[in-house]
């Protein structure tokens, strides 16, 4: 049996005797627990995430200081405001560096054009591009002939827009939401683009090219499909920009 005397609680202990507990003990515990939960809440929402600490979260920079880095057999000096992630700005040896710019002149990020870089509509002028160590066993031609061409409805394709041959992926290919465009240069080199089709779900489709910059470095870039009519200028500008970054080792 228990009773109250003033502000003190008397309850039975395991031996049947009386124990005395201060009336402020329970409120104190509640306050401490509430404070601890509040601290955890603030830490979760206000402290940097692991990706931010590692420099792998998108983090635009308006600095144009040169970043010296090496990817496989190539050395580059890249202005910081072309890079998407802080990790790349540490320089040195890198497995892959992600960058972006604004079409048509391949402008880097600045405070004045920040809004354009945040635009993800179908008309966005942002082009994303990566330089990285080659990981695929296939080059661009081999990828088309050994993979993509086996997954299309008609291996011969049909005449497409802007000088391309267009191939339609089969419904079971895993690429049914994409068009395949292939252009053959006068010296028989291929340009292979995969472009998402616009739909109710895909309202801002992109086109991408995965190609080789050197034997050990690949170049991947993507842009909004609305810019496909200017693909030759984009491809040429992309190559020239990367070449402008390259330096002798």
Describe the protein's architecture and organization.
With 249 residues, this protein is of the alpha+beta class. It has helices at residues 25-46, 50-54, 114-118, 140-146, 231-245; strands spanning 3-5, 8-12, 18-22, 66-71, 74-79, 92-93, 96-102, 126-133, 158-159, 165-168, 178-184, 190-196, 206-212, 217-224, 246-247. It has two domains: 3-47; 56-247, no CATH class. The strands form three sheets. An eight-stranded antiparallel β-sheet has the order 7-8-14-13-12-11-10-9, covered by helices on one side. Strands 6-4-5-15 form a four-stranded mixed β-sheet. It is extended. The chain starts with a strand and ends with a strand. The model is unreliable at 1-14 and 47-56 (pLDDT under 50).
Describe the protein's topology.
Elements: E1 3-5, E2 8-12, E3 18-22, H1 25-46, H2 50-54, E4 66-71, E5 74-79, E6 92-93, E7 96-102, H3 114-118, E8 126-133, H4 140-146, E9 158-159, E10 165-168, E11 178-184, E12 190-196, E13 206-212, E14 217-224, H5 231-245, E15 246-247
Parallel strand pairs: 4-6
Antiparallel strand pairs: 1-2, 2-3, 4-5, 5-15, 7-8, 8-14, 9-10, 10-11, 11-12, 12-13, 13-14
